[in-house]
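In the current project phase, we have settled on a layout for protein records. A sample record is reproduced below.
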Amino acid sequence: MQSQTANAASGLPQPPRKPKNPMSREDCMEVLLESRECAFATVGEDGAPYVTTLNFAVAGTVIYVHGAREGTRNRNIMRDPRVSLCAFTGGEIGRGEGPCNTGTRFSSVVVSGKARIVEDDAERSLALDALVAKYAPEHAGKPMPVKAAAATGVVAVEPAAMTGRRR
């Protein structure tokens, strides 16, 4: 993982300078493992963010998302690999004595890095196995239908920066 200074030079999106209630890298990884969805942002053709909600899984230090092999997300990644994603857990409302003492309890992680389309069959299989283990654990370890696996697009994100916060 590069420093924020190196990220600024590479043009990657920057995390907040001083997040309130910052989390350690280990705590950030825990949130990624527990979270069910992420908001996944790519750079659109016009330079504007293009955000989709996706399921994702972590294998080692790589974050994998899956979906169609073709489409706006993948075209954006092929043109400009810079991405950012945000995942969170919680979301319960904590009520206080008045309107200014009411807030949402959550843990969130923002990751920025570079994405690549996974072409290698072994890596695609690793990613799909991680996704099945996370979202359908009753099917973990079962063979993936070859035709379905081949038709599934997989994107790998190598995190360059990761920040998290709790409230």
Notes: Residues 121-135 form the longest helix (15 residues). Residues 4-166 form a domain with the Pnp Oxidase; Chain A fold (CATH 2.30.110.10).
